[in-house]
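worker-03 picked up job from queue 'complexes'. Input manifest follows; four sequence lines, order preserved.
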Amino acid sequence: MSYNSFGHMLRVTTFGESHGPALGCVVDGCPPLIPISEEEIQVFMDKRRPGQSRFTTQRREPDTVKILSGVFDDDTGQQVTTGTPICLMIENVDQRSKDYSQIKDKFRPGHADFTYLKKYGIRDYRGGGRQSARETAARVAAGAIARKIVPDMRVRGALVQVGEHEIDRDNWDWDEVDRNPFFCPDAEAAAVWEPYLDHIRKSGSSCGAIIEVVVDGVPAGLGAPIYAKLDQDLASALMSINAVKGVEIGAGFKAAGLSGAENADEMRMEDGQPIFLSNHAGGILGGISTGQEIISRFVVKPTSSILTPRQTVDKFGNDTDIITKGRHDPCVGIRAVPIGEAMAALVVVDHYLLHRGQMGEK
Amino acid sequence: MSYNSFGHMLRVTTFGESHGPALGCVVDGCPPLIPISEEEIQVFMDKRRPGQSRFTTQRREPDTVKILSGVFDDDTGQQVTTGTPICLMIENVDQRSKDYSQIKDKFRPGHADFTYLKKYGIRDYRGGGRQSARETAARVAAGAIARKIVPDMRVRGALVQVGEHEIDRDNWDWDEVDRNPFFCPDAEAAAVWEPYLDHIRKSGSSCGAIIEVVVDGVPAGLGAPIYAKLDQDLASALMSINAVKGVEIGAGFKAAGLSGAENADEMRMEDGQPIFLSNHAGGILGGISTGQEIISRFVVKPTSSILTPRQTVDKFGNDTDIITKGRHDPCVGIRAVPIGEAMAALVVVDHYLLHRGQMGEK
Amino acid sequence: MSYNSFGHMLRVTTFGESHGPALGCVVDGCPPLIPISEEEIQVFMDKRRPGQSRFTTQRREPDTVKILSGVFDDDTGQQVTTGTPICLMIENVDQRSKDYSQIKDKFRPGHADFTYLKKYGIRDYRGGGRQSARETAARVAAGAIARKIVPDMRVRGALVQVGEHEIDRDNWDWDEVDRNPFFCPDAEAAAVWEPYLDHIRKSGSSCGAIIEVVVDGVPAGLGAPIYAKLDQDLASALMSINAVKGVEIGAGFKAAGLSGAENADEMRMEDGQPIFLSNHAGGILGGISTGQEIISRFVVKPTSSILTPRQTVDKFGNDTDIITKGRHDPCVGIRAVPIGEAMAALVVVDHYLLHRGQMGEK
Amino acid sequence: MSYNSFGHMLRVTTFGESHGPALGCVVDGCPPLIPISEEEIQVFMDKRRPGQSRFTTQRREPDTVKILSGVFDDDTGQQVTTGTPICLMIENVDQRSKDYSQIKDKFRPGHADFTYLKKYGIRDYRGGGRQSARETAARVAAGAIARKIVPDMRVRGALVQVGEHEIDRDNWDWDEVDRNPFFCPDAEAAAVWEPYLDHIRKSGSSCGAIIEVVVDGVPAGLGAPIYAKLDQDLASALMSINAVKGVEIGAGFKAAGLSGAENADEMRMEDGQPIFLSNHAGGILGGISTGQEIISRFVVKPTSSILTPRQTVDKFGNDTDIITKGRHDPCVGIRAVPIGEAMAALVVVDHYLLHRGQMGEK
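worker-03 finished. Artifact:
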């Protein structure tokens, strides 16, 4: 069972609400002797952290991560994992004692206010409680550990579409991703997105986005058919991120329009190794990694926290209107990039351990 | 852990290879006293069964399902579930003693031949072994039981795109789905697809497709955030189907291009009940059902079993070519419709039981 | 979740009723390339099989096991596992069309008739249905595969107490176990048990027993604290066997009466290796194997199927009496020996794979 | 998978080391709207807390529990669960900056020092790190919540044997349990134990103990055969407690010496309800609760932390001796009583939810 946990052998359990004392996670099953420090994790926390540019929410959370367990000094004095559960805690500090009367009893359209109340009969309405995207801070922290486990594995994400504005793939430059506030790999697209997002932001509106995550350095053979396929677990992990409405691997939905001859990746020997001549499969065949880049993409819907008044009802059964005031992201997809990276890293590492268990090392 | 099992409380474990003695599944956790018979299951088996029209593979498998356990006569003599595991077995009969020398040592592009061998060091090459889409027969059998558990739940699927030919949603007619060999809800589209697929079939080529599955009669409140979200589990289940490369819920990838005002479904009271004025969310908010139709879509890549010679390598490290002769589907997406329905049914029922466990009945 | 499955990485799911068409199991997660055949499994089936001596039930079941999946010829033509799920099926043949009117509506004391009906609202009363010890045939089949996975692992069981008659541990001789119909390692005790059990059998009574299972050849380091401790999983596996009412490891309940100095196993170096000077711990410290013999013991209650009339009630709420006629075991503990071995083998192998996953091979 | 988690639907994950910053747990799957406060949990923490009498370790830990998530005010202002994960944290305060040179490199006999190092290649030697019984504080905290979920369920534990001194069951008085420092239900036995344990304590020795846990108010029908039997899960949960070497249910190991007629609990109708005339089964038949008291017993070995020098080796491969100085329990079994209660409560509640999921409410 898994309400608030995921992973087979590297198992992450998250806890915490947006405006409670703290949130965090327990990472269980991590191999021992992996060097890790709060500083290394913080680097990734800062990428996801709100308030980094005018294009993300101005809520000011330092998102400082504390390691509560599972790490100890090795013989050389370096901090390493011990194989026991690693609890990572992030205290909430910017919980303004806010007036919640506007949202306490009303269901915000596009939010989970209605469904949480229907399900549980109670909801923590402060900042969205458990439904808040603040929960994803715990994922990023866990992902920072995952990045260090598989030798040669590299996980990189990028924003490839904002609103209806796609990047030009011919311009793709990974170095560009760190040079603009959008994690955009195409400098020309970034230049278009900036005024577009400024307009969205100023008008109190929002837009959706598509994120691509690419993992390389993954050995062939990872993935556990039939029901823990690598692509299945990636789809599950990415779809679990707040506001995600779709996931695809490799050619994805475009595969519908391809012929079998176009879509299947041919093979040839090169330097004594089998190689693929293309990667429509996104690095996964039959649920198992091919050794190529693993390519996934997910769509994030536009945030529903906007300044336009919207029709809704309240919990007493009255028609009413609502405006979501306050600090919000014009495009939550931007901050979803490091989150997607973290989830992809966790999934691949999980399968690395799973494969090693069933097969032994080769 | 779940190599070959899925589900939280209604748990399905499948077994079997394409050309072994039998395949099947164990359905565990089914509530007792659900009336079920082999005949009822067979109805759905026949929808997925190959050889139903010239547009699906001509392999002749009766796909006769046998119930080995978990069902007994109630006091009235009706066959019902007993709450113990239900084993469903389908014997393989059309295992022509075929010449496998063409595929035994070569990796078919777009198939999992290479990855299975890389992972396991051995593979059952007869008909694809465990990678074969024959495994999905077990899913359909399990799904036939799932359909009977949640009162009022109805699961319907349709093919909405073949190659680049989409349906016109204004023509949508559920009754039409049973009138053509494509599970197509749009009679005009079906008329276009027929010659298109004949052309594909005769040229030994193949094309991809998009399937939509709609579940109605689902109460609000099902789904278990954060890591067993209803949409997450749907994505996982649908992505586990052979050849699926993408999954989306509600507006899906189109949500990227919408504004927050367009995308968020507004609410109003109607006859004393809260209703939604649209369904971009696809019936799921924050991972929990809203009570609306649950709408999912998945893309099936074109089968790689085609008559055009393709470049590949063999397991000895030689460059070679391959043609996949024999009986194949020009568009495997057609037969994916009942499979997608089965998976959606299993996921929703699983969450129905899970919800009832945590919450009790209301 | 696990109604009818157990194990973390080597996962066994069983199905089937005593008098249905077949019972069996799916073994999932088995490493590939393990040589296995129906004949090898049958050896262990025959040890558990009823009707082997006058001290076990005379029900005549050949218990012939069929492999339905997961096994294929390797390059040398030897049958080996492929890493995919192995379905093992045992058809029920001795399902005499018996008169069930005596037990159909009455609750046999000491049996699960009452609790199954209370839980499920229905029960398959033929031979006890799913509650029958016939289910353990599937465990023995799965265990036969498990025995082949860990190099050097050896699993041996013995009956160490029948009724109140214990063995003398000074007489322990493993070779003796195969020379008497009781799996007794003490020839003198066996000589006492024979007339004792004849008396029990002839008087239509029954007695309990204690079984000891010893696993050697297990490397130090297996076990996953805190909640998948090796001893915990052994306790769980052994307690899941029908009629088991207690489990202990090493010194077990006798540890209550020992002092800390007596109980703790001291260590010394020998030939450059750390060794223990005793084994009160039963080969497990902190839930992790020490490298010594793993020693577990479990108690099997006397079967409640006896010829003495007993007071009970029927499902209509009437007081009544019942005699269990038919073919039964005077001491079900005898046939529990190969079952206990199978469960211990499965648990240790599961932890071997789990350890290998988290740690890699050393 | 479950390294540091247990439970099917009510799932507890613990984290933390003896001398790290904090330990605690995440309780996931708790039904919403259960009233709970830190004060209520603290009552049970205090029962387990060290330093309560001269018979338990003098380590001074306040064991103050903090609720980090999952609890919110209901409409009346009362603190209740929300259905989201509840994180309970206990900060470690008495982590004397101690000299660990004595135990840093030596393996304490009877402790898990050797096995943790063998497994992980590193161990946190401060106070035993993760192997420390301090971890059980998290279990007691989780158990305090579990006690509130099943209406009418009552969980009570008692010490029934210390060293070789058993209680006289004819003297059993539950009220007596709170009147002596041993949780002993027999005043006469307690009077014997006091000087006995004083002697043990003063001589720097230790002794084992047996604890009995009784749960009443449990409806018939809980338990999930075959592999999540109620007794199996109890055995697993109790065996996971540090230093436990055996578990039994009902008549337990004594069942070996009973006849089938003696052991099977007969039934009669009383006031229109079926009742049992005895309870050798310990309230569980076929893995399912009968509605009677659920009776379990477990043995705790004598702590190996004693003042007598013991032979051991160090991690460099040298023979050496060790004395465990410092603050320890002469009989750790005493403090195991509230821990056993907590584990039993968690198991029964888990099955209550599981049953409700599969069956619905009746």
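worker-03 released lock.
The longest helix of chain D spans residues 336-359.
Chain D has a mean pLDDT of 94.
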